[in-house]
Amino acid sequence: MTLLGPVEVRALAEKLGIRPTKKLGQNFVIDGGTVRRIVRVAEVTPDDVVIEIGPGLGSLTLALLPEVARVVAVEIDPALAAQLPLTVAQMDPEHADRLSVVHADALKVGVDDLPALPTALVANLPYNVSVPVLLHLLEILPSLHRGLVMVQAEVADRLAAAPGSRIYGVPSLKAAWYADVRRAGPVGRNVFWPAPNVDSGLVSLVRRDPPETSATREEVFAAVDAAFAQRRKTLRAALASWAGTAAAAEEALVRAGVEPSARGEQLGIADFARIAENRPRP
Ligand code: SAM
């Protein structure tokens, strides 16, 4: 397998006149060991249709192509999107027909923009939008059954945090609606060009059914957002405007079997589903 190293990444960027931008989270992996590790930990199979967000210069794409049925790569930067098929045709002609490039914003991409239904997500996500992109894909692509993403280390910790921990919060709860989420190892900053000023981490996701509830996903997420907008307050106080009054919040909590003096960080997503279900209707 031919992969991109530091020399190839810089040469490609220079050829395209690319000056990596922070705005688009453009830190390209220059280490073959890291992309091989990502593919191994992702546990993709030859039947998988992988969606990769932000393929950049193709570091991870080249490691994925020999292992899966297809890679659908969604890239926002037009120069990078146009170059990727050329890079792959040159470096791995045998598997080039497995690649589809979609020039789009991953935050807005819809299922109709994709040439095939992805079964797995494998991506070194753009760090400034990693959580919204992840949640958007989990929502619009029920066919995704697993994922392995690289994100900022702190975000990896938040996504995989368990109730009761200091960093547990909105990303942990919303991701848990869709999947079992685990940390899958650290990644140092020196495997990137340019090197970011934070470390990274791998996160693995395995799809599971959301908690059973008569509330909609939007209603459950609204309760989560309300609880964490004032995370230091008790749920009775934090959910007062969400429910109408503190008394209505208390009623919803009691009916949901949740102690009104508890705080949001102590609850799991199933608790929020019950709270949303018991919100007093006007
Ligand atoms: N996968 C490549 C690698 O590992 O070397 C590049 C990863 S780099 C961290 C993030 C990539 O996401 C960049 O190529 C950037 O242009 C792209 N990107 C940023 N925002 C995006 C968005 N909203 N939708 C799609 N791609 C985006």
Automatic annotation (TrEMBL):
<dbReference type="InterPro" id="IPR001737">
    <property type="entry name" value="KsgA/Erm"/>
</dbReference>
<feature type="domain" description="Ribosomal RNA adenine methylase transferase N-terminal">
    <location>
        <begin position="34"/>
        <end position="209"/>
    </location>
</feature>
<feature type="binding site">
    <location>
        <position position="29"/>
    </location>
    <ligand>
        <name>S-adenosyl-L-methionine</name>
    </ligand>
</feature>
<feature type="binding site">
    <location>
        <position position="124"/>
    </location>
    <ligand>
        <name>S-adenosyl-L-methionine</name>
    </ligand>
</feature>
<keyword id="KW-0808">Transferase</keyword>
<dbReference type="InterPro" id="IPR011530">
    <property type="entry name" value="rRNA_adenine_dimethylase"/>
</dbReference>
<dbReference type="InterPro" id="IPR029063">
    <property type="entry name" value="SAM-dependent_MTases_sf"/>
</dbReference>
<keyword id="KW-0698">rRNA processing</keyword>
<dbReference type="GO" id="GO:0052908">
    <property type="term" value="F:16S rRNA (adenine(1518)-N(6)/adenine(1519)-N(6))-dimethyltransferase activity"/>
</dbReference>
<dbReference type="Pfam" id="PF00398">
    <property type="entry name" value="RrnaAD"/>
</dbReference>
<feature type="binding site">
    <location>
        <position position="27"/>
    </location>
    <ligand>
        <name>S-adenosyl-L-methionine</name>
    </ligand>
</feature>
<protein>
    <recommendedName>
        <fullName>Ribosomal RNA small subunit methyltransferase A</fullName>
        <ecNumber>2.1.1.182</ecNumber>
    </recommendedName>
</protein>
<dbReference type="InterPro" id="IPR020598">
    <property type="entry name" value="rRNA_Ade_methylase_Trfase_N"/>
</dbReference>
<keyword id="KW-0949">S-adenosyl-L-methionine</keyword>
<dbReference type="InterPro" id="IPR020596">
    <property type="entry name" value="rRNA_Ade_Mease_Trfase_CS"/>
</dbReference>
<keyword id="KW-0489">Methyltransferase</keyword>
<feature type="binding site">
    <location>
        <position position="75"/>
    </location>
    <ligand>
        <name>S-adenosyl-L-methionine</name>
    </ligand>
</feature>
<keyword id="KW-0694">RNA-binding</keyword>
<feature type="binding site">
    <location>
        <position position="105"/>
    </location>
    <ligand>
        <name>S-adenosyl-L-methionine</name>
    </ligand>
</feature>
<comment type="similarity">
    <text>Belongs to the class I-like SAM-binding methyltransferase superfamily. rRNA adenine N(6)-methyltransferase family. RsmA subfamily.</text>
</comment>
<keyword id="KW-0963">Cytoplasm</keyword>
<comment type="function">
    <text>Specifically dimethylates two adjacent adenosines (A1518 and A1519) in the loop of a conserved hairpin near the 3'-end of 16S rRNA in the 30S particle. May play a critical role in biogenesis of 30S subunits.</text>
</comment>
<dbReference type="InterPro" id="IPR023165">
    <property type="entry name" value="rRNA_Ade_diMease-like_C"/>
</dbReference>
<feature type="binding site">
    <location>
        <position position="54"/>
    </location>
    <ligand>
        <name>S-adenosyl-L-methionine</name>
    </ligand>
</feature>
